[in-house]
Design a protein that fits this description.
The structure holds two protein chains of two kinds. By secondary structure, chain A is mainly α. Helix content of chain A is 61%, strand content 0%. Chain A folds into two domains: 248 residues; 138 residues, Fumarate Reductase Iron-sulfur Protein, Chain B, domain 2. Chain A is elongated, with a radius of gyration of 28 Å. Chain A starts with a helix and ends in a 17-residue tail after the last helix. Chain B folds into two domains: 120 residues, Up-down Bundle (Glutathione S-transferase Yfyf (Class Pi), Chain A, domain 2); 123 residues, Rossmann fold. A four-stranded parallel sheet of chain B has the order 2-1-3-4. In chain B, strands 6-5-7-8 form a four-stranded parallel sheet, sandwiched between helices. Chain B is globular. Classes of the chains: A mainly alpha, B alpha/beta. At the A-B interface, helix 10, helix 13, helix 16, helix 17 and helix 18 of A face helix 2, helix 3, helix 4, helix 5 and helix 6 of B.
Chain lengths: 442, 262
């Protein structure tokens, strides 16, 4: 019976996860194409250093160390799942223990030590967020769901660890009494680093029946939390644990100062500058009839990498904490740019699935991000430098500017003057180009 | 009439000469009174070292950087293509510029439009001149002075040039002090992204004031920069705190030119 329930749980857990991941992938691919498959060795290097090695996290050593504990714990704990799956599907109990011997004890002990550390780190994170109120973790864009999301993740982690210690602790007491369902190797104790102490302390006085119940709650609770957590990911900022890897792999490898070239503009400018061009000529064969929009009005005008960025963002706020505009009290927050992009993308994707490809809900990304935010950016790249997983809010800001300026002619009035000057006299100020070398004789 | 030797490309061509490097002066360096001094400091160093260079003069036009940062790709590409026509017409191979914005645009954004050049920042050129033994720098007036360097975003984070300006400052027998936010973590002066040409959005402080506070914290005699816009912003910041009597804001080129007594 329990095997059937476990198998169903497994199928449902993975099935639902795959289904959700597919939706996320569909959404990301709504973005326009950009080639990020060049320089593969360098891409692997960037991914290894930045995602796996968390290189950029260590700019802030304290949170980096705390984060590393949870990260290591998360990775190592996955190994234990192999045994849980096998036990669950064939009805065994600690099937690998007899054959793996000392290595088994070592692995479970390692998991226990890391889990215990993670327990305290998680509490430290809850404390930083809710009591210490670290500035970048208590800004206004996090009010509501974002804050709940963050706390939920931490509470899930606490539950997960509690279940692990219920499972191992109660089983340890049972094993000592020769009552565990694990094969008795006559050694009197599992010898796991934490639960061989914690188990007797917490559950030593319990009856056999009670211990079996605690052990089962721990075992089932653990695996249920694993599936809950996994399926929560696609709805949560916590998706970064998976997406950090592709996101860093597909990083922008150009110097940060380089902005993309708009090829659609190049075509038009070349036409304008070519004295032999026929302005009334029909578009050459093969060019698409509907010209693409200049810049971005909505999420589908951004690249798929921008959209992957949005799903990868875990809202840590390092970008915003380093943004000169935000530091000086302006409305702009690069983190909010990413959160808005994701929120709009989810809404946009759902609209398409429910109402068809051409549905217009009367909204756009510009319904989420205001012009005041867009124009406060100094394009200094502090946000892209600060991001531990190479997210690029700046390119979204610039694409929104491009739309506002080139499609709607909306910009701060002083910039209109600056642009006119450049067009008329080749400088952002009103000086004649002929006077450019007057300094030589002054 | 100054005694600077600044041939234009056209003048060089007429004499049948080809320069080794083009000095891209930029709009600020051409028109802004403060930045013109930086331009002249660069020229003094080039003259002193006998570098065969030329400027475009009236044939130079804005690189289009502020247009591109402001989102006007049309204006940017028009400027870029006109400049590329001129540069390619003169078969320019190597460019030096004292403005990180021109530097970034010429180096990174012109190649895709048909203009591929070796582009270096003036601090890199000066460093090369020292390395090649063409320029010897001793502390002179700056010996023992406390100097902090403000990283221009488009030189530092934008193009990973952090060391050239610092090595030059260290050549002055001066004490190089770093602000708490420096190099990759450096704070913007507030001028980039076309902000130079508009009022700032509503906030509780100007970015240049915030950045000047960083500088004042380390109590420098001199705030060094490598960008004419940063120079303006930091100078305004120092004035905001009424410290202009105690703290000078100078470009690295000016430091070197003064130290060599040019």
């Amino acid at each position: 019976m329990s095997i059937v329930i476990f198998a169903l749980l497994l199928a449902a857990g993975f099935g639902f996860f795959i289904w959700n991941v597919r939706l996320v992938r569909q959404n990301i691919l709504l973005g326009i194409d950009v080639d990020r498959t060049d320089h593969l060795p360098e891409r692997f290097k960037v991914m290894t250093l930045i995602a796996l090695g968390q290189k950029k996290m260590f700019k802030r050593p304290v949170p980096a160390l705390l984060h590393l504990v949870i990260y290591a714990s998360f990775c190592i704990t996955q190994i234990e799942l192999i045994e849980i799956f096998v036990d669950g599907l064939i009805g065994s109990h600690r099937i690998f223990r007899p054959s793996l011997g000392g290595f088994y004890t070592f692995m479970i002990s390692l998991i226990e030590v890391l889990s215990l550390l993670t327990f305290f780190v998680t509490i430290a994170f809850l404390w930083r967020r809710n009591i210490l109120k670290v500035p970048r973790l208590s800004m206004k864009e996090l009010a509501g769901w974002a804050k709940t999301d963050a706390n939920l993740i931490l509470i899930f982690e606490l539950l997960l660890i509690t279940f692990i210690f219920m499972m191992n602790g109660a089983d340890e007491v049972l094993y000592r009494r020769g009552l565990s369902h694990a094969e008795n190797l006559g050694d009197g104790s599992f010898g796991f680093a934490v639960s061989s102490f914690l188990g007797p302390k917490l559950f030593g006085g319990m009856s056999e029946h009670g211990l079996h119940i605690v052990e089962r709650i721990g075992w089932w609770g653990h695996i249920c939390m694993v599936f809950t957590f996994m399926n929560y990911l696609p709805y949560s900022k916590h998706f970064h644990i998976l997406l950090a890897f592709p996101n860093t792999f597909y990083s922008n490898l150009w110097p940060k100062g380089r902005f993309t070239n708009l090829a659609s503009v190049t075509k038009e400018v070349q036409l304008m500058m070519d004295p032999n061009a026929d302005p009334f000529a029909a578009a050459p064969e093969g060019t698409d009839a509907a010209p693409s929009r200049f810049g971005a009005r909505d999420v589908n005008d951004l690249t798929w990498k921008n959209l992957l960025d949005a799903y990868t963002c875990t809202e840590c706020g390092r970008c915003t904490a380093n943004c000169p505009a935000n530091i000086t009290g302006k409305l702009l927050s690069p983190r909010k740019i990413m959160m808005d992009t994701r929120d709009r993308l989810v809404e946009y994707g759902n609209n398409i699935r429910q109402h068809g490809k051409d549905y217009d809900d009367g909204k756009s990304l510009l319904s989420y991000i205001t012009e005041e935010e867009i124009w406060a950016c100094t394009s200094c790249n502090a946000c892209t430098e600060a991001c531990p997983v190479n997210i690029d809010p700046l390119s979204i800001i610039i694409d929104l500017r491009r739309y506002l300026v080139m499609e709607e002619s909306k910009m701060p009035v002083e910039l209109t003057g600056m642009l006119t000057n450049i067009e008329n006299n080749g400088a952002p100020w009103q000086f004649s180009q002929a006077d450019r070398i007057n300094w030589r004789d002054e | 009439m100054s005694n600077l030797r600044v041939p234009t490309m056209a003048e060089m061509m007429m004499n049948g000469e080809t320069p080794d490097i083009l000095f891209w002066v930029g709009c600020s360096g051409s028109f802004d009174d403060r930045a013109k001094k930086i331009t002249k400091a660069v020229v003094k160093i080039l003259n002193h070292c006998g570098v065969k260079f030329a400027v475009l003069g009236a044939e130079e036009s804005c690189t289009g950087d502020p247009a591109k940062r402001a989102g006007n790709e049309f204006t940017f590409q028009m400027q870029a293509m006109m400049n590329i026509q001129v540069l390619n017409g003169y078969e320019v191979k190597k460019i030096v510029t004292a403005c990180p914005h021109c530097f970034n645009t010429l180096k990174n954004e012109y190649p895709e439009l048909g203009g591929t050049y070796e582009v270096i920042h003036h601090t890199q050129l000066i460093q090369n001149l020292i390395n090649e033994g063409k320029l010897t720098v001793e502390g002179g007036v700056f010996k023992g002075k406390k100097i902090t360097f403000h990283d221009p975003c488009y030189l530092g984070r934008g193009n990973d040039v952090y060391e050239a300006p610092r090595e030059l400052i260290q050549k002055l027998d001066a004490e190089l002090v770093e602000m708490k936010r420096c190099k990759t973590n450096g704070l913007c002066c507030g001028a980039g992204g076309a902000q130079m040409f508009k009022e700032a959005e509503k906030g509780n402080k100007e970015v240049n004031v915030e950045r000047t506070e960083d500088a004042l914290e380390v109590k420098p005699n001199i705030i060094a920069t490598g960008c004419p816009f940063c120079n303006t912003m930091m100078t305004d910041g120092v004035k905001h705190f009424e410290k202009e009597q105690e703290i000078q804001v100078l470009d690295v080129a000016e430091l070197i030119a003064n130290a060599v007594d040019l």
